[in-house]
């Protein structure tokens, strides 16, 4: 339950959270169901009941994939990249770790691959693999849908929410680098583009003009 100005409000239901996640994501899919359920379990396991309100500064989430479920996790928890309360790790795993910054409690939740086949058991009447999974994941017991592991997480100070700890200028291109992302290479302080190679190519005015 959530207390607001002397009143006690019921926590949003799964259906309500799924509806909001779907609105933000743009469509309903199995990944939305997984993300909502994953977030609900994660919050429960670390003792967070009001993630978007009174406990918003206590919550930190690490996601390991940039797929549909991540949007649902952001919707439920209120964590996001801009607030630095959501950290994306490019691991390609349908998993997320939920951390209570106040208590240190943390839990990693992974979607089980076996759940794909188990979907047939829970929604045999539904035609189509993806629709079947969508319906099955709503009702499948969490122990069959997820692996839930209590974990310990050390979050570097430079990754924590709040103002940047420092800003330094790249000695090659002049860009300013925040949050300890600079690289010292051959005695020079560089941004990562200059240190490791750019993901983009700078075009000349002649090449870019019409």
In words, what does this structure look like?
This protein has eight helices and eleven strands. With 210 residues, the protein is an alpha+beta fold. The N and C termini lie far apart (60 Å). α2 (30-46) runs parallel beside α5. The longest helix is centred in the first third of the chain and has 17 residues, at 30-46.
List the helices and strands and how they pair.
Layout: E1 2-4, E2 7-9, H1 14-25, H2 30-46, E3 59-63, H3 68-77, E4 86-88, E5 95-100, E6 106-111, H4 115-122, H5 129-139, H6 142-145, E7 146-150, E8 167-169, E9 176-178, E10 183-185, E11 188-190, H7 192-196, H8 205-208
Helix pairs in contact: 1-2, 1-3, 2-3, 2-5, 4-5
Structure in a nutshell:
This protein is α+β, with helices and mostly antiparallel strands and 210 residues long.
Counting DSSP E segments of at least 2 residues, the number of strands comes to: 11
Number of helices: 8
Major β-sheet annotation? 5 strands, mixed
Q: What overall form do the CA principal axes indicate?
A: globular
Strand content: 15-25%
Radius of gyration: 21 Å
- First-residue to last-residue Cα separation: 60 Å
The low-confidence runs, each spanning 5 or more residues with pLDDT under 50, are 1-8
Instruction: Give the H and E element order.
Output: EEHHEHEEEHHHEEEEEHH
Indicate the mean pLDDT.
92
Structural class: alpha+beta
Strand order of the largest sheet: 4-3-5-6-7
Helix content percent band: 25-40%
């Amino acid at each position: 339950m959530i207390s607001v100005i002397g009143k006690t409000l019921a926590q949003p239901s799964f259906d309500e959270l799924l509806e909001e996640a779907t609105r933000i994501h743009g469509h309903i899919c199995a990944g939305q169901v997984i993300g909502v359920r994953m977030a609900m379990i994660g919050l429960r396991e670390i003792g967070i009941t009001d993630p978007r309100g009174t406990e918003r500064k206590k919550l930190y989430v690490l996601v390991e994939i940039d797929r549909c479920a991540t949007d649902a996790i952001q919707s439920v928890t209120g964590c996001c990249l801009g607030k630095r309360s959501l950290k994306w790790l490019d691991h390609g795993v349908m998993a997320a770790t939920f951390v209570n910054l106040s208590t240190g409690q943390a839990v990693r939740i992974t979607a089980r691959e076996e759940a794909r086949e188990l979907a047939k058991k829970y929604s045999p009447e539904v035609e189509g693999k993806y629709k079947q999974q969508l319906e099955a994941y709503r009702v499948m017991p969490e122990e069959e849908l997820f692996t839930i592991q209590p974990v310990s997480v050390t979050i570097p100070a430079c990754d924590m929410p709040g103002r940047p700890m420092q800003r330094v200028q790249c000695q090659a291109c002049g860009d300013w680098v925040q949050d300890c992302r600079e690289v010292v290479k051959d005695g020079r302080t560089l941004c990562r583009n200059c240190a490791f190679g750019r993901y983009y190519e700078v075009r000349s005015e002649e090449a870019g003009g019409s």
